[in-house]
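This part of the workshop introduces the protein records we will be handling. An example says more than a description, so a record of this kind follows.
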Amino acid sequence: MLGSTHGTLTTDSRRARVIACGEQPAPAVHGRPAATDDLDVSGRPLYAGVPDLDRFFRPESVAVVGASDAEGRPNTGITRQLLAWAERVGARLHPVHPTRESVFGLPCVPSVAELPDQVDLAVLLVSDPLPVIEQLAETKVRFAVAFASGFAETGAVGVAAQARLADAVQRSGLRSGLRLLGPNTNLNAFEEFRTDLDGPAIALITQSGHQGRPVFTLQELGIRVSHWAPTGNEADLESADFISYFSEQPEVGAIACYVEGLKDGRSFLLAADRAARRGVPVVAVKVGRTETGVRTAASHTGKLTGADAVVDAAMRQYGVVRVDGLDELQDTAALLARARPPSADGVAVYSISGGTGAHFSDLATAAGLRLPALSPAKQAELHQWIPEYLDVTNPIDNGGHPVGDWRGRKIIDAILADPAVGVLICPITGPFPPMSDKLARDLVDAAEETDKLVCVVWGSPVGTEPAYRETLLGSSRVATFRTFANCITAVRAHLEHARFTASYRSPFDEAPRTPSPSCRKAQALMRPGSRLSEHAAKQLLRAYGIRVPREQLVTSAAASVRAAGLVGYPVVMKASGARLAHKTELGLVKIGLTSASQVRDAYRELTDIARYEDVSLDGVLVCQMVEPGVEMVVGVTHDDLFGPTVTVGLGGVLVEVLRDTAVRVPPFGEDQARSMLDELRGRALLDGVRGRPPADLDALVEVILRVQRMALELDTELSELDINPLMVLPRGQGAVALDALASCR
């Protein structure tokens, strides 16, 4: 993060910056210098380091600094819990306290320097962990946990204290490999996990401990949870470290995260990329959609929440499933952890009520799920057991009675046998024994014999019925929900993540490692701390092979006439100056000029207006007049979390009125550039409407990719770029940047 307004530590101290294009020092990754080949053109790591956290979660020896057994003291309860945890994981526990000889019957040493053996994990029950950090490094302790609060979550003084703590940990890490969890964390990592559950597990990451409780209690429903990482303020270890580590654990089927803010956007994306490569779903609640959420998150953990539109786009780009509620986090993570890859994306809705089926189908279709009509042959097969007057097209209405006898299982098996169906969803709005008991049992038995996903929505508000508590929750193959909305959210995430994983290609594999020839040309045009004129900004685009109109910059009426003859009539004339952002509003643009007299008069009028408005010009542009097409905008901005970002949207005044834009974080490839266009509400304009020809999408995509290359290579020089409008001509004719603004750092 670069200068968080919430006082979060800058990451520039952890990441080397580009000194000159092509000259990148290697940044340290977890205390080790990265190889130059593992850096992109802006000097940032291309691959995530994976910290070895095995000894954090399963240490052989644990030191508790500040241990206590005095009744009524907070440290006593914590020490007692750590004793129980150490016994469960088979670790030796060493109390550390300067004035006690023993704690809970265990010998106590006065300082970490006097620990009797090598310690993997030190738990710091002290108000100021800073003095202990240096001692831990000397004794080669691998991990430490700091519970103390009063750091970056409290404001400027706390930010400074956390900076000192982080620096001490980094220095110690370089010497001994020490890593710190916290400060402002809690005991969630040391909870008692059930060991009697089978199947893929959920690994949990939270910045607020209580927000992970709903996921942790999934164990009571038979869903395995393997780890819990409460990251707190993330002075050192961060959510990204745990995502990288959990994605490598064979027992982890999905990672559930509650994120109040990201410590470093790049680290998060590298970790998400690692999970995507391995096909491990990451489901996240990320607060900060509103100003209130941003403010509250800052006061809680001192994190920078980031521009939410950029966070949202970055998560989608790397396959992170973003949900809003903790109930959605719970249900979606549970489904993604246990569901097998779908054989088809078709969803079949099966119910005993036509009303229930219609209601669920409306919601599912509106959410983007595909409900294919069953084939005539399949419908005829179903009508062997379902009355002819009932609709079995999809949704499938059985009328109720068939579920109570041998026909019920036949119907379910027939639906699951349809090759177009990958998911079967059965909403049961309420218990109606004995039919609901039989239906639940048939669904569970069928699920055991198929690779396809079977989901049940149990709508009863009671939740104590045997069909629910014993039959459905007792199955590891049926995904059971309590609401329509959560079922639809989870199934949609399952299908979308499967499509994402099947086609995922890591953008970091294709990221440029050396600067292009355009880079040094562009650097010569940059003016630190200033804004470029339109003419200079277009030279920047031309350096990266982006087409601009034929134009000449002139400083006299006579020169403007000569330029018009060279450019070719008709022409456009525009005032050009570094401070001109909105020329049209000031009357500083003249279009459709067809004669020398018009050009001469236009020059005089433009310069007169500029003098009247007290606008400094570097000249007047005489430009080729380009045929009309679809006006788009392509731009670069710098996000505090993720660095350079690329935006595309409808251009001209529409970008300000409709705000119809899509965002990506470089690096990205052609597939992501095209998906940006698909996200636009005005996408149909590019396909041609009202008799207009289709636009040159290939040329538009090429501009987007060239702009992202520019954003990467000029990361330390370019603050902002705005190409508006980019005129996208009919197919095969290209795209032309009619206007551009650029600001330098």
The radius of gyration is 31 Å. Confidence is low (pLDDT under 50) at residues 1-34, 296-305. Residues 340 and 728 are 43 Å apart (CA to CA).
